[in-house]
Specification:
The protein has about 900 residues and is α/β, with parallel strands linked by helices. The chain contains 31 helices and 24 strands.
Length: about 900
């Protein structure tokens, strides 16, 4: 049993439901109301249903359809539209740091419109916002391109006028209206919620609504008259779940075989599908990334709000020039603010999106990449993710549960000779037999007649003539082969094949056969019975009445097999700290079997009905210790996600059906596939072009690399900036001049930040990638206060050297002092990157990527060049004497050594670094 330990328990919310919970409750109430209405229509006679929608079996007239289209609107569900480009552009700049930088630039412009710092800050803000906008805009367009409609029209029966005969027309699905009579055939999408009027051999794939991998049989089940003929359709026994109703077909499902006609009883947002989709429009819930960035942003802003006024006051009081002190305070604010953070984060995420696109992953929302790395719980459906999303014949058994080739042979004959559209199980039987054997079968048998499958009998039969076997009278012998639901076929059997002998099917043998089938059901297999009858009096046609006195041969057992690489992918996710929970609409037995086959510890399988009886606190406790949830509806899936999030987990959800849309939206990262229904793709943050957990595991590692490089920049910059400001504060209190000009601070910051643009291309240590990573504002604050002051020690050492060794101790020599500290400060900031980027010994146990190395060299050369460059005078620099540089090397080496010592202590005490 997978027991999850809460990370950081979320504080209890104040009394009363929050907006998210209210919206979930509204969704549940709306879906329940629609379900109850549809269930009621299922129980009503067909005549009453037609009267209710003011229609007839012959369909609407064109004029009536036009009026209803105007009254009810187009047959489309509420969908979240991609924002216009200018809205996306505005949102790209909506960030706490960006707003702070804009404010600082405005203040600097107000003080001096010619200040180059205004241009510097504007460029930083512009590049960061445009980079984020372009990547998300491009990804959004790629996601839109993935929408592929299988069909856009459906066959509707309409009339030219009141007395005219009905004609079948192909009309766009969005023009279907209540009261339309729709004709369905194999391959059709169901365009609206329909009450069936007629049906023949109708099988419907409902996986998008329920998660069940196998199609289900549908029929209108008319009542039988006393004479045995078909009477009036009086409706079915009422059920609370419209998906289970045999005479309803719902939007979002599709026909796999058979034909039917049905009257439209709901369109658009009034459908069962539409009731779920309505809640998926509007503001998305805050994700793990959003909460983390906000906490870190305000932590750094609080540091700035404390330090800047102190620096301003100290400078004003000691120097007496309040205007200069104000400018210097603004420069310190810029220095404290990781102004490149929005740009570095955007570049990190954009690079992650590009890397994932090479692995056939479309990232719709950039923030989702970090959420993928933080994810420690993945909730996934079963079909197509853990399984191959196809039905295979797993076993063919006699009544004792032992493999028997004769059962396969008879099952194959039944599937091979039927003339109707084969269902998935028929195809699975055929696929199990070699092509050579098919040729032999065609030579040995000839089809005489067939009795097609129907919902009431739940079986089908073929009658074959044995070409090589002729009796004494010269008439060919016929054999009937029946395949169908175990209970229905057993009821028709009088004999059974027992280890090669045909014996009477006694009560004890019947019970034994039933137990054999039930044992396979408990293993998660779908079981069909196979029976035969030798017909001594051959004739040209046969009927249902001939399905009697059968001999039970054995059972065919089917399953949707686990993917070959599913177990390995799950182990890889577990090794990287991601617990997988299966949340499926399929039944408990099937779910348990598949999960066990792929190596998940199943434990107690929790059905959806059990979830409804729990309050949120109880569900949180249950969700933490449960691996498999079965027969869950859309509302229950979303509740499971929220319960896990309330325990402090970053939750991913992988799904492709209509019933997954709400959970996809509520999860920290919603993951879907390009073959998913449109609403699932719209709700998702990430779209996989291949439904493969191996691809997902690579995405998790990419997300952690992206987050690691982001947090690396924040910790390096925040600690370095804090150390610099602390040094400024000390120097301002004792020096007769400013320790560094405002323009120097801005240039130092700019050179350092440009060097950090290579951070997204850095590599992360393998140990860092082994477990989920999350935002930790408290840890960042602790890191700043521990590592930041180290630089101040050596800054002060450089102050002493410049003051005493180089006599830069008067106002006239202020430029030399400021230049000396500028170079030391820039080089120490740049080099210390390599100390902080890894918990190992830099350059020995862990080396940065080549882009980071190149940018480090360029930053160092820039810092050494500026005092001797043509720009030196404009920036206030003075050429440094050669004797300065040995002192510089000594200070930098001592700084690196002490940082490594403190790093070792920090890791030992707090068990973390980045």
């Amino acid at each position: 049993m997978t027991m999850l330990t809460p990370r950081t328990p979320t504080p209890l919310a104040p009394p009363g439901p929050g907006r998210r919970e209210r919206k979930a409750a509204e969704l549940q109430a709306r879906t329940r109301a629609v379900a109850d209405r549809l269930a009621g229509l299922s129980a009503e006679p067909a005549v009453q249903v037609l009267q209710g929608v003011d229609a007839s079996r012959h369909g609407l007239t064109h004029a009536e359809a036009a009026l209803r289209l105007e009254r009810h609107g187009a047959n489309v569900v509420a969908q979240e539209r991609t924002p216009r480009w200018f809205v996306q552009l505005a949102k790209a700049f909506w960030n706490p740091f960006v707003l702070v930088l804009v404010l600082l630039a405005a203040i600097m412009y107000w003080q001096d419109p010619a200040d180059p710092g205004v241009v510097i800050l504007s460029v930083m803000v512009g590049v960061s916002g445009l980079l984020r906008f372009w990547q998300e805009y491009r990804s959004g367009r790629a996601a839109e391109a993935l929408k592929k409609l299988v069909t856009t029209t459906c066959a509707v029966q309409r009339r030219a006028g009141g007395g005219a005969s009905p004609t079948t027309f192909e009309v766009p699905m969005d023009q279907v209206v209540p009261g339309d009579v729709v004709r369905l055939a194999a391959g059709d999408l169901i365009p609206a919620d329909l009450r069936l009027l007629t049906a023949k051999d109708l099988m419907v794939a409902q996986a998008a609504l329920t998660g069940e991998s196998l199609p289900v049989a549908k029929a209108d089940l008319p009542a039988r008259s006393a004479q045995g003929g078909l009477g009036e359709d009086l409706g079915q026994r009422e059920t609370r779940d419209p998906v289970e109703a045999g005479n309803l077909v719902l939007t979002g499902t599709s026909v796999t075989s058979g034909t039917a006609t049905g009257v439209v009883v709901a369109t658009g947002s009034d459908t069962y599908f539409g009731s779920m989709a309505g809640s998926l429009v509007g503001e998305r819930p805050q994700t793990n990334f959003d909460h983390g960035v906000r906490r870190v942003s305000f932590l750094l802003i609080r540091f700035m709000l404390v330090m800047v006024p102190v620096v301003f006051l100290v400078n004003g009081l000691t120097k007496g020039d309040w205007n200069e002190a104000f400018l210097f305070g603004v420069a310190v604010a810029v220095g404290l603010t990781p102004e490149m953070l929005p740009m570095v984060v955007s570049a990190n995420l954009a690079r992650g999106a590009v890397a994932m696109s090479r692995r056939k992953v479309v990232v719709k929302r950039l923030n989702a990449i970090q959420n993928l790395g933080a994810m420690d719980v993945l909730c996934t459906d079963k079909t197509g993710t853990l399984t191959e999303d196809r039905i295979v014949l797993d076993r063919y058994l006699d009544v004792h549960g032992e493999d028997d080739d004769e059962v396969l042979e008879y099952g194959y004959l039944n599937a091979h000779f039927q003339t109707g559209l084969r269902n998935l199980m028929d195809q699975a039987v055929i696929d199990r037999v070699d092509e050579a054997e098919e040729v032999v079968v065609d030579a040995r048998f000839t089809l005489v007649d067939e009795i097609p499958f129907d919902f009431a009998r739940r079986r089908m039969s073929v009658v074959l003539a044995r070409n090589a076997l002729v009796d004494r009278s010269g008439r060919a012998e016929h054999v009937m082969i029946t395949k169908g639901a175990v209970e229905e076929v057993l009821d028709l059997c009088t004999h059974v094949v027992d280890r090669g002998r045909t014996v009477e099917l006694t009560g004890s043998r019947r019970t034994h056969a039933t137990l054999t089938a039930q044992a396979r059901n408990r293993e998660g297999l779908r079981v069909l019975a196979v029976a035969t009858r030798t017909l001594d009096t051959p004739r040209e046609s046969y009927g249902v009445a001939d399905e009697e006195q059968l001999t039970l041969v054995g059972f065919l057992a089917f399953l949707d097999p686990p993917k070959a690489d599913a177990a390995e992918a799950l182990r890889a996710l577990a090794d990287h700290g991601v617990a997988v929970k299966v949340v499926t609409g399929d039944n408990e037995l099937v779910a348990a079997r598949v999960c066990a086959d792929v190596g998940l510890h199943v434990g107690h399988v929790v059905p959806g009905a059990e979830i409804d009886a729990l309050d949120d606190a109880q569900l949180r406790e249950l969700a933490a210790r449960t691996t498999v949830f079965a027969k869950v509806d859309p509302v229950q899936k979303a509740r499971i996600v929220r319960a896990l999030q309330a325990e402090g987990h970053a939750v991913g959800f992988l799904g492709d059906g209509i019933n997954d849309a709400a959970a996809l939206r509520d999860a920290d990262v919603g993951i879907s596939v390009d073959t998913a229904v449109d609403i699932a793709k719209e709700s998702a943050d990430i779209i996989l072009l291949e439904k493969d957990l191996t691809v997902l595991e690579q995405g998790v590692l990419q997300g952690r690399t992206t987050f690691g490089n982001t947090i690396k920049y924040i910790k390096m910059t925040a600690s370095s900036n804090f150390g610099n400001v602390f040094s400024v504060l000390v120097a301002s209190a004792f020096l007769p001049f400013q320790p560094m000009l405002a323009i120097m601070l801005l240039v130092q910051n700019l050179v350092y930040d440009i060097a950090q643009l290579a951070t997204p291309w850095d590599r992360m240590d393998e140990e860092y990638l082994r477990r989920p990573r999350n935002w930790d504002a408290k840890g960042i604050g602790r890191f700043m206060l521990t590592i930041g002051p180290i630089s101040s020690i050596f800054d002060i050492a450089m102050f002493v050297i410049m003051w005493n060794v180089f006599a830069a101790n008067t106002v006239g020599e202020a430029s030399l002092f400021q230049t000396g500290w500028f170079v030391e400060g820039l080089l120490s900031q740049t080099l210390i990157v390599h100390m902080i980027r890894t918990r190992k010994i830099p350059f020995v146990q862990s080396r940065a990527s080549w882009p980071v190395m190149v940018m480090t060299v360029l930053a160092v050369l820039t810092g050494l060049f500026l005092p001797f460059s043509p720009l030196a005078g404009a920036l206030g620099f003075t050429a440094l004497p050669l004797g300065y540089f040995p002192w510089l090397v000594g200070v930098l080496l001592a700084y690196c050594a002490l940082t490594q010592v403190v790093k070792t202590y920090y890791i030992k005490k707090f068990h973390t670094w980045l």
